[in-house]
Amino acid sequence: MSSGSSHDKWNYLLSFPFALLCSIDMGWSGFLVGGASFLIGGFWFSPDLDIDSRPTRRWGPLKKFWMPYRQCLGHRSIISHSILLGTISRLTYGMIVLIILASPLCLISVQTIDINLLLQHELPKTRIHLVLCALVGLETSTWLHIIQDCNIFSKN
User: Rounded to 5 degrees, what angle do the CA atoms 40, 5, 12 make?
Assistant: First the structure.
């Protein structure tokens, strides 16, 4: 099992090559989105959000929002420390918390957002590759974390 500092070191080391890889097809926007999502995935959306860890503490006062997630999952559970399912569970949990916190704002708001108008807008259509790049960056950092936890990078 890797330490928190080892996870951090590898996140820093591999975020730049990942960003370069994304820039081949998407230019500077791919570089920025790919690199940032890889770092965010490693530092704030790590599989170690299921324990009191560096990624949990990086949330500062907002780390309390991850308490139910930690209490429902044991450390290294099949949900938190698995390919695809781990990232999906953390993103889903984060969105649920965000929706719950934002719901009182909907009661205050006079204007409502027309979801059809948003979906018809050109931005989501032209930038879907950047959204996919961000999701792949988050998932790739999860893979790195899981590989490190399997001691593949350890010195034997």
Answer: 45
Give the integer Cα–Cα distance in Å for 98 and 16. 30
What is the C-alpha to C-alpha distance for residues 95 and 99, in angstroms, rounded to an integer? 6
pTM: 0.78
The residue type found at 135 is L
CA gap 45, 62 in Å, rounded: 13
Question: Which pLDDT belongs to residue 104?
Answer: 75
In 3D space, the residue among 108, 107, 137 whose CA is nearest the CA of residue 26 turns out to be: 137
Query: What is the DSSP secondary structure assignment for residue 73, as one 8-state letter?
Result: S
Output the pLDDT for position 75: 72
Report the pLDDT value the prediction gives residue 106, as an integer from 0 to 100.
Answer: 67
Q: Whole-angstrom Cα distance, residue 152 to residue 103?
A: 44
- What are 103-156's pLDDT values in tens digits? 777 666 555 566 666 566 655 555 788 999 999 999 999 899 888 878 755 554
| Distances in whole angstroms, Cα of residue 117 to Cα of each of 30, 40, 103, 106, 129 | 26, 30, 20, 18, 20
- Domain ranges for the chain: 4-149
